[in-house]
Amino acid sequence: MTQSQSRSPHLAGWHPDQPEREGLWIFTGLRDFIDNIANTSPARLALTAFSVVILLFTGLLSLPAASAEGVVTPLHDAMFTAASAVCVTGLTVVSTAAHWTFFGQLVILVGIFVGGLGTLTLASLLALMVSKRLGVRGKLIAQEAMNNAGRLGEVGTLLRIVITTSVVIEGALALAMIPRFMILGEDFGQSVWHGVFYSISAFNNAGFTPHSDGIVPYETDLWILIPLMLGVFLGSLGFPVVMVLQQNGLNWRKWNLHTKLTIQVSFILLMAGTFLWALMEWDNARTIANMTLGDKITHSLFASVMTRSGGFNLVDQNHMESTTMLLTDALMFAGGGSASTAGGIKVTTIAVMFLAIAAEARGDADVRVYGRTIPQGTMRVAISVIVAGATLVSVSSFLLLQISGATLDRVLFETISAFATVGLSTNLSAELPPAGVYVLTALMFMGRVGTVTLAAALALRQRSQLYHYPEERPIIG
Fold first, then answer.
1. How much of the chain exceeds pLDDT 90, in percent?
2. How far does Cα 11 stand from its chain's mean position?
3. Burial of 254 (0-12, 13-18, 19+ CB in 10 A)
4. Contact at 8 Å (CB) between 199 and 234?
5. Distances, alpha carbon 199 to alpha carbons 93, 176, 194, 234, in Å
6. For the chain, N or C: smaller number of CB within 10 Å?
7. Global pTM?
């Protein structure tokens, strides 16, 4: 049979599955393409994907239909909002409730959902590359969920797992809050919209609110506050940790090292943040001084959860003590878990650095924890992430000081919030000229994709050396 005969329409009936095979071939080709980019240039994959999505949502938010006044939103405002949504940050230059129509708010919500899924999927893929390259087995439980598929291009399977997990958690949060909004007097449609909006915003650590006064009216309503805190905390743990918890429950012995470190450090920061925030704000009349004991504890716990990436706030950030703002800066910079919707330098980075410091103080040659040795390469990546984050914050703060003329504490707070994709604000973002808005937009973008791509890129650039120069130690300290 000749090639032309094989393509004859008379034989089409003998191959009823031909369209299915062609569709499969297209998917396989796309998978191979993504697989090739992910292996050869993870930074290019991350930067390209997020850039395209942000530009798309910028165009949608620029439409007159997205604005309550029916006019074109200025480019810097539309791009800032799109970047804040896709990078799941929550900083705003215009009121989400007042400036945007329902269509505009829907675009923002879809941006948060897509950005959260993209972050989880992309970060999981890059973390898988890092774990394979550094030899840290089990860092990403998604490898087992994909039946130990060795190819990074199994994007379809990973994406289905991420979407299913996200939708289930967000659905549960929405179902918990919708009845409360109805009891508080909202109609069914509004209650559903607000419940869905807050659930997606919370799990993705975005911090956007559809109410003009945020969640301040619910500052003593545990029916609203508890689901928000649970959603933010689960989202900040990261997809690898959530998968481990789904498969092994609370059986500590079956958890991998990444899960143990993430949960342990997260709870340490949560408890320490709650205690220190309460200690510093207890007698502050502008925040919680006049509240009951229960409300003070609730505010302190809520602030500690949201500070590390959630972005929801119950008190005006400008009314906090200077020491509290500094504490907030530190917690925001720390962030949440790797391969999560949280930002910052990540809690495992902090864990690795403290373990290395402790090992050095004891004089140990290896950094050991829970019966495992942490490779030297992991520590070098951790140092690089911390230095890169500090450099981005420093340069951006310098630029904003020059552009805005604001005080250092406000500039540093806003800068770290943008880099760590937290969303807490002293309202400096809304006061900035377009040049300052673009600086924060770039910082949100780099903070979202920068650290994880840096970690993957550094891990993949490791190469074997055939020789070593003689060692010589410079004087340190």
1. 60
2. 52
3. exposed
4. no
5. 22, 9, 8, 12
6. C
7. 0.83
